[in-house]
Amino acid sequence: MIVCLVIAILLPLAGALVSPLRGRRSPALAALFLTGASAFGLAAAVPVMMGWVGPIGFSLPSAVPLLELSFRLDALSAWFWVITLLLLPFIGALAGEYVRSISPRRVAICSTFLCLLAFSLTLILLANQAILFLFAWEGMTISTLMLVLAHDHRKRVARAGWLFLVMSQVGVTFLMVFFFMANPSAGSLEFSILFARGSAWGLPAAALFLAALIGFGTKAGVFPLFGWIPEADPAAPDHIAALMSGMLVKMGIYGILRAYIWLSPLPPWVGPLLAALGGVGALYGVILALAQRHIKRLLAYSSIENVGLIVMGLGLGMSARQWGHPFAAALAFGGALFHVWNHAIFKTLLFLLAGLVQNRAGGQGDMNRLGGMLRLMPRVGNAFLVAAAAICALPPFNGFVSEFILYIGAFNALSAGEPALRLTAVGCILALSIVSGLVLATFVKAFSIIFLGTPRSAYPPDAPAPGGLTLALTRTLTLACFLIGVFAPLMPRLLFPVVYLLFGPNPPTVHLPTGWESALFRVTTVTAGLLIAWGIIAWLHRKLLEFRNPGQAPTWDCGYTQTTPAMQYTADSITGPLTSFFKPLLRTRRRRLPVGAPAAPSAPAPLTTYYPPPIIIQTQTPDPLQRRLIDPIFSFIFRLLNPVRRLQHGSLHLYVLYIAIALLIVMILALRGPAGGPTP
Amino acid sequence: MSLTGFLTFLAALILAPLLAGITDKTKAWLSGRCGAPIIQPYHTLWKLIGKSAVYSRATTWIFRAAPCIHLAATFFALLLIPFGSRTFLPSFAGDIITFVYILALARFALVLGAMDTGSPFEGMGTSREITFSALAEPALLLILCTLAAATNQRSFDAIFQSLTPAHMAAHLPAILLLGTAAILVTLSENSRMPVDDPTTHLELTMIHEAMLLDTSGPDLFAMLLAAHYKLWITFTLILHLFLPTLPNPWADAALRLLLMPILAIALGLIESSGARLRLVRVPQILMGAIVLSAVALIFTLTTTSP
Fold it and tell me: How far is CA B99 from CA A552, B87, B156, in A?
């Protein structure tokens, strides 16, 4: 078991080292290493996740001071690791498709950093020591940044990458505060010693948790720290965007859960705070997703919404556990953790499909210029339909099951005694119901504008069709969405060990799985019945029309025979009523632009009496949070730090001088005595 | 599974189109007309099922599958909600959630089938439908959640069996608020005046009708039948809110069956009593329905002892 673990850790690193040597063939090699790492990793992780084996770990001696190579795999890490391992081979296999137009050296860089990213993700989940964790966290950020920039370094992409880096660094600052101020009197930075039960925290537990929340929340996309997601996801190549939305944000969630386990007991307001942040984030994400016209920005805001739902579930679970309702807490935690898996699966699928659509349309991501893709790419369209139904939480797919579990958890919390818990549960139900209605609108818009109707602009005829491997992989993910939905009753058994872990050292003795399994079994029965009913009705439908020769005609359109594709509803207009309902938040700007050159003074005035002149209207919905909160803060900080920019002149010699001066100061402080600095 | 449940389900399957007929007759009498016979919807359905279909060349398999999925999902929602105190199928904890999401699946199929034609009329119907349902669905869910909180149960059977007269009297303010919200949701979900005008096929007033413009023959039969079932489902919910459950299941079912036509007449009265609302007002009144149900939920939580 430990051998599998070691191999699973080392294989991506080996892939990263070997990739630069193979040039153009490196994506296939990277995919091979990633698949191998997944196989060994799953062999190690699945038993731990299912609770058949206790937590496993090992340590290696390290020559670097402060860094101890200590690894530990328990049920929580295993839960996140399994889904990462299942999706990484897909990403690796598809990476080859996206590097065809890049030079061989750059291809090698992409593969190297993909392997390094896999390695960092593994280390984050397995690290048992603070410095190792931070090292892996930074590695994850830098690898992702390199992957984004290596594919394309136009200004827009560079700006998105810069925003990603800055927000990650802000997060890391708070993480450093969290790790280094948690327990200054502890002997080592190993987690079991640093966060040992009963130790005196350096700062109040609530402050530490807030630092961890901000630090991990910038990566997870918790409101209001998600600014990088809508910028980075459209700018990145599709498989990296899928990785970012699917797995990077889950690392943030993992961090929040770890901080919760370490810092228990926390003050009672932490759970409701998290639930409130999650609910507001979910609502904000979906309202903004409604207003987007670029498919990947819509998917990015949808990720923010789903992360909001996960965090809300976690907050509800923490509140329920705090006020003594273990069953409700187990359901809420279980629903949120299950949603982590579901979201990773269908968001990866959606980003890959969006990328295929964009490629087929010649790089066009604006939904107002798409349409009729179902006829051009039927399999991509069918997969997108399944993914859209899954993300809208419709039976029989997997999204429904996780939201169902969250609802049942909230219901159980409603019958609690503590008013704060009841209020949290009410808020959760309110947020879940409003969000589900709006998500349906969003994905009806996404699917119908892109795939249905007729094309709104001309597609290049020679655009590449999706390759066989890509289609096979999307089909696998689609099948996963369906099968997880159907085999829902098995989920409590998988979730139980992880949820158990979240209850800390004194878990309740109530038998948690039995309550949910019967309800989920009934849900599966209902969805099976639904499919059978559909089958029967479809068969009757076919029988009725079999001998009646259904005719074909142009779309009726109330008898108007000259319809053009431009007369169809567009992405902006189909959600127009909803975006105008949310106008106080969205503040969509409409500008009327001048058409053509202004007429010369001597030319006769154009005839505008009876026919309206051509007009161009431009609508824009900038992110309100970005515009009103984040941008002013960052401009203020920028202005404040402007004088410091004189230090950044780019001259390497002076930088070396700075390092020398810093070392000199540290040496003087160290030599001054034990009070001055760390003893070697 | 109970006999009353089975028989009331059969009654729903057979009698649902009658409600639309009664409503239309009421509206006709109030306008001073004689109106079509009450069984006119059956004539329409029978006519449609005997016809062939014409499909638009712009449509794909989604247009052909959508009516079947829509009807199957609405049929299953009818199976889940009890008419009276007992459902046909065994009820389970959380079936209220499943019910709402199955209705959402029906709506998903309906709007995608409509958008497949590429016509701006269907696009308009879809746009309005997703706007109104984005706000009506939370209201419906909150109504059911408030009932769950009031009775401290989580399945339809248990909730409606606990709604005895004494229980309802204890929660009277919340029940009244829920009833108002349920009426608003009914008007919106069934595309009735003042939200939508089901009698015209004009651009100004179409929501549900707009989405059916290109459907014909057995497809249209499926869509219309599903619309009738949805009306029956929403009326069932209103009856549950205004009528406590009687101890004898047979008397309970019989009383409810007698009251359904009364509700249809009441719907006809509401429809004839005013003009259609401006479409920007409809999301506002639906938001009002959400607020009413949320307030009812908070009332319930403060009055029930844990």
Answer: 36, 13, 10
